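Protocol step 6 of 9: fold each sequence in the batch and record its structure tokens directly after the sequence line. For illustration, a two-sequence batch is reproduced in full.

Sequence one:
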Amino acid sequence: MKLDDIETSTPVRVPVSARWQDRPILIVDPSNFLRRLIADVLRHAGADHVHTFASKDDGLSAAVTYARPIIIADWSQAASAGPALTRALRRKNLPVRRAPVIALGNSGQMREVERARDAGVNAFLLRPVAPASLFARLDETVARPRPYVETESFAGPDRRTRPNQNGRIAWKRGVDVESGLATPLEAALAQADAMAEAMMRQGDMIAARVGRSLRQYLETVRDVGPRETEIITLHRSALRRLQEFENAPDAHRNELVNGLEEITARRLAA
């Protein structure tokens, strides 16, 4: 079954419990050895409903059949099951879009961690995974779930959860605007900078142009109204498309950004 062919079905329910050991755990990894290794570790810790799958399609197909599943997915490379599976899970039309996802990667480079975070994972662990570390992430995911966020460009656990210099938890910028900590324009400019900075840290200079294009436009306006909101949404959508097709040829990705910049330039000249 393909990712786009998944249909809503009646989930298989298990008793509601505060323990991750009592919830369905789906392990998605192409390596038979690694699947069995993780499954054995979880079962030894008392997990009663562990299921393993080799492909992202089988993993997603299984995810929609269970209530309150937890997914542990391979994230060893961009073409791994984890990235495509997580993005598919976070689609708004799936009943399991908020299912916790724990990514298992081979690289701890900041750009890889941020790429997983921006796809919507709950936690990122490096292989070889120590059982204690895996159990700690599972405990945290179930006992202290982060707020779930859905925007034009992102769906998943809130990424802004680190205390700032004043010790306050920094949540979404929309909350900052509502509480009077920032104007809509200030928040939009900060978002534009964050877009460019995040993509540059990931080494994606093509996607970084989206943030710079948005800042160039916002620097010419005095407030955020319907016209500006439309441009912001357009840039968010473009960034999301670039992230979905991060492995596409550079020529195709550049063409998308060129079109975005042309639209922005026309709006500036109007």
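Sequence two, same batch, same settings:
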Amino acid sequence: MKDKLIHSLETVGLSPVVPMVRLASGENPKQQLSEIFERIGLPILAIALFLLLWSVSAAKVQTSLGTLPGPSQVWQQYQGLVVEHQEERLKEEAFYQRQEVRNEKKLAKNPDAKIKVRPYTGKETFFDQILTSLFTVFTGFILASIIAIPIGVACGLNKKLYGAISPIIQILKPVSPLAWLPIVTMVVSAVYVSNDPMFSKSFVTSAITVTLCSLWPTLINTATGVASIDKDWLNVGRVIQLHWSKQVFKIAIPASLPMIFTGLRISLGIGWMVLIAAEMLAQNPGLGKFVWDEFQNGSSNSLGRIMVAVVVIGLIGYVLDWLMVSLQKIISHSSPESAR
């Protein structure tokens, strides 16, 4: 039972909790306490030291918007953003309640009357912007993976194909999102024309920009992983006359999963950074737009709010990477040490 719990914790990326489980079961207290300090105590000390240095240094930096905010000021701004979000949700609830009362009165007078429920058009709060950015980055990342993995597998299995498209990959790979964004914006504006679009043009533009910038690490790592698997495995598949699709899904992809997931982790991290830059430049809804709007606002609270956004962007990036590592451990059954 204990071993299963430990394995589950390591699989989902909660290895720092493992020494606590072992300590609770009476396993070598001195060693487990040492591991707890190493896995939990040292990171907490490092974070505390970082916050202390930030607090001391920030007080000495004067900007056009005032003193650079320290951790306590940033926390206060975060609490203010929470209050704003709660107030906006109350306004939204009241808006729909008024419509409901109005429609009930209308139906009471005329049961056949047509009623309308208008959508709430209040401003997006900081937390709404977070959800918008997350939805956009996952859309772009999934599209990139759908494109990159099949092409990468094909390139890994066929050296001539990889040699043919390698120059294209090397040319497009270093292109900045700031260069892609104007092109994507114009193409989407010209092609994505509809009186009742399913998605807004800003969302489509941001998602495609993320896709174009984040597919290359997955493509290259997949091709490298497939190309480096033991050729005897593929030869055995040919000898027993496995269909090519089974050779791909039963041999090539499972054998190269660690490399594929390494590419996916890099792609997701790049996609997150690209998205923030694209939202800032194009003023598309999301965290990037929030940062730019606060910068343009120039109020006494703006700098603190920007710092809140920076911390949140970093934390989300960390969580996204942790999710990919945990997913790799679950799907590829790799050891905790091999996926870090």
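Proceed to step 7 once all outputs are recorded. Observation for sequence two: The two ends are 26 Å apart (CA to CA).
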